[in-house]
Each structure stands twice: as C-alpha cells, then as structure tokens.
Specification:
heterodimer, A: mainly alpha, 7 helices, B: two-stranded antiparallel ribbon, two-stranded antiparallel sheet, 14 helices, 64% helix
C-alpha cells in the first residue's frame, strides 16, 4: 500500500486545515471567514491528536476553537462591517500594508522550509500516555520557560486593563 | 494480536448501539420532562395517548418528521441547515468517551470451525486516556451550533439568543473547567476509567503520612471535593442551557431565542443536542464525584467471583457483572437527569447581569480557592 490509514488521515486533516485557512482569507463575508478559522483550529487540533499530543489537542479545542474564535464570531455578528471592508479593500495605505504583510509571510514560509531541510530532525520521545505528557509539559513550562510564561500572563493582563479603560472612555453602557 | 472480524463487528455494533441509546433517550426525557413538570405544577400533562401518555412520544416523533421544512426569507440557507447538526454532533462525540460499565471479558470459543478470542470489550465507544480533556474540548464546540443558528436565521430574536448563548457558555466553561481541576489533582489522571477505579472500595486517604480508612463511607470524590461538586453542577446547568440559566431561549423575552425560526426535524436535532449535553454533564458528575459505575461496598471482583461461584461460565459472569454495573451507572445518571428537570420547573430564570456576576464574580473565585486549597492539602498530606 502506498499510503497507510494514518498517512491518509494526516493528508485529510492537513488538506482541511489548508483549505479552511485559505477560505479565511478569500471569503468576503467576515462571519464565514471567522467560521473557517474555527474549522482551521479544529483540523489543527485533529493533527495534534494524530501526532498523539493529546493535551495540546484538547487545549487547542477548548481555548481556540471553543472560546477565542467563538468570541470573534460573536463580536463580528454585532457589527456592520461594510465601512471597514471598504477601507481595507483599496487605497495606497492598505496596499502598502498588504505588500508588507505578504513579504513577512513569505519570509516565515521560506525560513520554515529552510529549517526543515537543515540537519536531521530529532526523534520524538515516546510519551504515549496523555497524563505523562501533560506532566512533562507542565514541568517544562514552570521551570525552563517560567519567565516567558509569566511575561505572557502580564501581557494578557495589560491587554485586559487596556480594553476596560478604552471601553470606559469611548462610551457604551459602562461609560463614565 | 490484531483485531479480527468478530472484534471489529462487535465494536461497530457497540458504536451504533451507544449512539442510538443516546438518541432514544431524548423522547423518554421529553416525556419525563412534560409529565414531571405537570406533576410539579399540579397539572396532569400528556396522559391521553397510550398508557401514562407514553405513546405521545411516538406521536411527537411522527409530527417532527412530517412537519413542513421551510427556510425563512432572510436566512442564510447553508448555515441554517447546518446549525442543528453542529448542535448535535459535539454532544454525541462527547458521549462516546464516557465509560458506562466494567469491561466484558470474552474467553476463547469455537464458531464457524475456528477458535476466536479471547477478547476484552469495553462498554464505551472509545477508550481514551485523556477522556476529560477530550470531552471538555468537544463539548466546548456546542456553542457553534447555537451561534450559527441564531445568525443564520436572519431574525433579531435569534441573534440576541445566540449572543447570550455564546457569552454564557464561554463564561461558564471557565468555571466548569476550574471546578474539576481540584478533583483532577486528587486523582492524578485524565482517564475517566482510572478515576472510576480509584473511587472503588471504602473511603481511604493519607492523613499526614498515615493511611486512614473509613469503612462506612464509599471512596467517592464528592467527599473530598464538595465545593467542586456544587460548582460543577451549577456550571453544568449553564453549559446545557437549562433553566435557571436558559437565557439563550428565554421564551418570555426572546420568543424562543436561537431556535425561533426552527421547526420539525431541525428543532428535534436541537432538542437532542440539549438533552445530549444534559446526559454528558450528568455522566461526568457521576464519574467525577459519585464513583462512576461503582456500587458502594461492592467491588468489581466480588461481584464477578460470586457469579463465578454460582456456576456461571467466566464469559457470562463478566457479562452479568457488566450489566449490574451498567444499571448502577444508569440509576445514578437518571437521578441527575431528573434533577435537571426538577430544578427547571422549580427555580425562576436569572437576570442576564446576575448570571454574568454569578459566573465571573462568585463561581470563578470559589473555583480558584478550591483549586488552591486542594493543591496545598494534597502537597501537605502526602509529605507527612
């Protein structure tokens, strides 16, 4: 057999992830775009499951698909985005932005491809048990990467405080 | 040895039977809900069709199927049709990971001129060693069904219902997740099967390095985590959008909320989704805090041995043991399903801002405190 079941599953999930990621960019309706993003998150989570990274797969589902993208969709439903869509569909400034972003994206893609071909990949450690994996992840996160973990927390707190301050200043039901 | 035809056939059958059992529970629950509400409110309820009104279920099912299917003028047809399916699938997927009873061990037997077995069949669709993460992940997708239904209907009431549903489900998911972290620390595993096995036997715990056993109490999670249990149960009501937290439907304010424009079979799929969430929540509560399929003062081995001593063959004893524990699990789950109905017809609906206050300002801090205290207690007790 050329491809086994596991390979077939991988191509299916990866294809779904790429197709839905493309439709995030290509679809003009923001809500469909956000729903495609949710589908992308789902298929990425499926890929994690396929790689036996169960905890990551679950967290991907709970945090991204189950909370973040849901809030995106919810906020998008509340707004009439015709003005914003027009502002980003033409004009010199948005053109410049698009060129810069496309350049950055190409840079990321080329460096990832270069990385893949450089040197041999280190073999995956066999930690099949989901509980053991999570333990290992927690130990790494709270020892080696403690400072970056805490910094991320502080960053999120700053964003939270900023959002509340903006909401209070700009009006709405909670305006001062 | 790899899976042979017999094993594949049984597993496939199990897949279908468990899914159908879940779906078939819906009409029975609807009946229990209508009769139960009538009983609570001193009315009669449906009692004309068949004995105790039980054939009302059949009449309802026929009505659901033969109703005209229509799509409102302002609706987005694709999402409008997809939404009920999106609402049902997460609940069905989540139910797949729930261990319903003890595994059935089938010893070697002869059939069609060859030897088969031995096999071990679990009474659960998929055995996962990360069951709880999977269930939380999959059931968090349930909000998409409500969201797309509300938006795709092209109706303002539906949209308002969908917005409420999302804000509520995302908020209470946090409280739900936090309420079980304490229990997860105690059990030290993500596997639902292992959790059930850990709760077997009498109450036993480490008290400053000494082992303490209390014979007259079962070793259930609710004794170690009473606060976690209360928080979980409350959050479960919000997650399955049941009264007192049914703000997404709120028939007094929003006609019928997110499913205002739905009727017939599509509506039935939403029903199945809601009752499926109820079923999964009840089953999770039973597994986390009430010993799963375990029976107090009886272990799997004692039941199996006594059946074996009464002259049954090992396969039949294993099957009967499984049946006994399945009944125990179903009894516990049915109690909580009744509890859901009971609460629905007893408590009034929350106001929306009160609901958010309860989630964020009351349940979240209590959940964090429960986690903190449990972590310290586990650390101190185990050090001795």
């Amino acid at each position: 057999m050329l491809i086994d079941v596991s390979g077939l599953l991988f191509y299916l999930l990866a294809g779904l992830a790429m197709a839905s990621a493309l439709s995030v960019v290509l679809v003009s309706n923001p809500i469909y775009s956000a729903l495609s993003l949710a589908l992308t998150m789902l298929s990425v989570s499926g890929l994690f499951f396929h790689l036996e990274a169960y905890f990551l797969a679950g967290v991907q589902l709970i945090v991204y698909a189950g909370a973040v993208v849901i809030l995106f969709v919810m906020v998008l439903m509340l707004f009439d985005l015709k003005e914003e869509k027009k502002a980003f569909s033409g004009g010199l400034i948005s053109f410049m932005f698009k060129v810069i972003l496309a350049g950055l994206f190409l840079g990321v893609v080329s460096s990832v491809i270069g990385w893949t071909f450089k040197g041999t990949p280190t073999p995956r450690q066999a930690l099949q048990d989901g509980t053991a994996q999570t333990k290992e992840l927690a130990i790494r996160l709270f020892s080696e990467h403690l400072i970056s973990f805490e910094l991320t927390g502080v960053l999120l707190l700053v964003v939270l405080v900023g959002a509340i301050v903006l909401a209070k200043a700009k009006g709405g039901t909670h305006a001062r | 040895m790899g899976a042979d035809q017999f094993e594949i056939a049984v597993n496939l059958l199990k897949l279908i039977v468990i899914f159908l059992a879940m779906v078939q529970l819906v009409p029975i629950l609807v009946w229990a809900e209508r009769r139960g509400s009538a009983f609570i409110q001193n009315r009669l309820g449906p009692n004309r069709v068949g004995p105790l009104g039980l054939l009302q279920l059949l009449a309802d099912a026929i009505k659901f199927i033969f109703k005209e299917q229509f799509i409102p003028a302002n609706a987005k047809p694709f999402l409008f049709k997809a939404a009920p399916v999106i609402a049902l699938v997460p609940a069905a997927l989540a139910f797949a990971a729930i261990p319903l009873s003890t595994p059935v061990e089938v010893s070697t037997f002869e059939l069609f001129g060859r030897a088969w077995g031995p096999y071990v069949f679990e009474i659960q669709t998929v055995h996962m060693n990360v069951g709880i993460i999977y269930i939380l992940g999959v059931s968090s997708l349930g909000a998409y069904g409500l969201l797309t239904a509300g938006w795709a209907s092209g109706n303002k009431y539906s949209l308002l219902g969908a917005l409420r549903a999302c804000a509520q489900m995302v908020s209470y998911e946090l409280a739900l997740g936090l309420s079980i972290v304490g229990a997860l620390i105690l059990y030290g595993t993500f596997s639902l099967n292992e959790m059930v096995q850990l709760q077997e036997g009498p109450l036993a715990f480490a008290w400053f390095g000494k082992q303490v056993t209390v014979g007259w109490l079962p070793n259930w999670g609710i004794i170690f985590q009473p606060l976690g249990a209360v928080l979980f149960l409350t959050a479960a009501f919000a997650e399955s959008n049941r009264l007192p937290f049914d703000l997404p439907e709120a028939e007094g304010e929003l006609v019928a909320g997110f499913h205002t424009e739905y009727g017939g079979f599509k509506m039935l799929l939403f029903f199945m989704g809601e009752y499926g969430h109820m079923l999964v929540s009840s089953a999770l509560f039973v597994i986390f805090f009430l010993g799963g399929y375990g029976i107090p003062f009886l272990t799997q081995d004692t039941v199996f041995q006594s059946l074996l001593n009464n002259g049954f063959s090992p396969t039949v004893s294993s099957l009967l043991t499984s049946l006994v524990f399945l009944i125990s699990f179903l009894m516990k789950v049915f109690f909580f399903l009744w509890f859901f109905i009971w609460v629905r017809w007893t408590l009034p609906r929350f106001r929306y801002d009160k609901l958010m206050d309860l989630g964020w300002k009351t349940m979240l801090p209590w959940g964090l405190m429960n986690l903190f205290v449990t972590a310290i207690a586990v650390y101190v007790m185990n050090r001795g």
